[in-house]
Amino acid sequence: MRGEVRARRLRDTPAPPLDLVGVQIPYHFRCPISLELMRDPVTVSTGQTYDRPSIESWFAMGNTTCPVTRCPLPDFTVIPNHTLRRLIQEWCVAHRSDGVERIPTPKQPADPTLVRLLLAQASAGDASLSSRIAALRRLRALACESEKNRAVVSTYTRSAIAEMAFGADLDLAVGAMEALAAVGVTERESAMVAARPERVAMLAGMIRLESSAEARIGAAALVEGMRTAEAREAVGAADGVIEGLVALVENGDSRAVRAGMRGLFSLCLAKENRGRAVMAGAAEAVVRRIGEMYCVERGDLERALATVELLCRVEGGREAVVGVEGAVADLVRAMTGKATERAAEHAAGALVAVVGGSEALQEEAVAAGVVTQLLLMVQSGCSDRARRKAQMLLKILRPAWPMQDLFANSDDFLHPF
């Protein structure tokens, strides 16, 4: 219903004149959805043309009709309107003196036909090994070019490439795993591995493989995709899996570090793996990298801190974290600035375990400014769980607060509501 209302508005409401730096944009150069100058015009099966981001967003919202005509669309195929794009570019050039910038020629997504041909070449058992590996490398290159390409390649090839990654030929398996690192994996592909012990063993070998960092990243992505406790426990118990992920975190580049951390977080969600992770040096490896996590996707920092908190709860975990120089300061820093609520919560939870029972570490945390951050957490609209952790840490730190008399009436902060 909402889509129909939107379509009716597009069809029946006259579009207001739009100006670009004082120049009126021709009506047929404007997208019927956004009413802005089209930069990548594409045509749907009804013959109507839209700007690619606008029509893709329309489809992503679940709409199955043409926004202008309201006619049902038999498929969601869009065809680049090169003629209109060139006319728009010529118009931009003609009005350059008025400050109009020429729109760049957009890079088109990978052709599904080409993707299917490459997959057929990679899967052909009677083809030469070199040609099969070359096809996998071409698929990987396409997926790395853009997010649109990755989506196209992933749609047609992901499951088949995952199968090839566990074939008998090691070189082909490595090539497939490298492609999988670029294409991405889902829970389904990860479940295919966890359900078969021989594949879990191959996965462990791939994670330890020194010759290909990309193959190791692909293997770590499969580990991250484990979603059930049984799968996580089975993979975590395999000889070399956790050690390989720790090695990625310790010695890899930024992509490898993130892949290794995500894999460790997934495995540590299963209690049975936490002791193994501590024994493998996961706590120290993750803590040493926390300082680098502020410049990457915020979810990676949250996962890293959650992993530290989980490992601090098992024997040897706290001692491993304490043994890392600057660990307390890094955990406090994770609560400050633009830290997300979850990052602050996990940092507070880890600090509860780390500084408890050590006056020196409590003083170090206070000196790093943790009290201010905790008081802000308690007074903010954070979750009940985050607030309880903050209150617990405040209680532990209270003897170490300088000028304690300023907080003589702070019981409201220290007791759960």
Automatic annotation (TrEMBL):
UniProt xrefs under InterPro entries: ARM-like (IPR011989), ARM-type_fold (IPR016024), ARM_PUB (IPR058678), PUB22/23/24-like (IPR045185), RING-Ubox_PUB (IPR045210), Ubox_domain (IPR003613), Znf_RING/FYVE/PHD (IPR013083)
Pathway: Protein modification; protein ubiquitination
Molecular functions per Gene Ontology: ubiquitin protein ligase activity
Keyword field contains Transferase: yes
Enzyme class: transferase
Xref: CDD domains: RING-Ubox_PUB
Keywords of the record: Transferase, Ubl conjugation pathway
EC number: 2.3.2.27
Pfam families (UniProt xref): ARM_PUB (PF25598), U-box (PF04564)
Domain U-box, residue spans: 24-98
Gene Ontology biological-process entries: protein ubiquitination
Catalyzed reactions: S-ubiquitinyl-[E2 ubiquitin-conjugating enzyme]-L-cysteine + [acceptor protein]-L-lysine = [E2 ubiquitin-conjugating enzyme]-L-cysteine + N(6)-ubiquitinyl-[acceptor protein]-L-lysine
Ribonucleoprotein found in the keyword field: no
Domain of life: Eukaryota
Role description: Functions as an E3 ubiquitin ligase.
Protein name stated in the entry: U-box domain-containing protein
Gene name per UniProt: PUB25
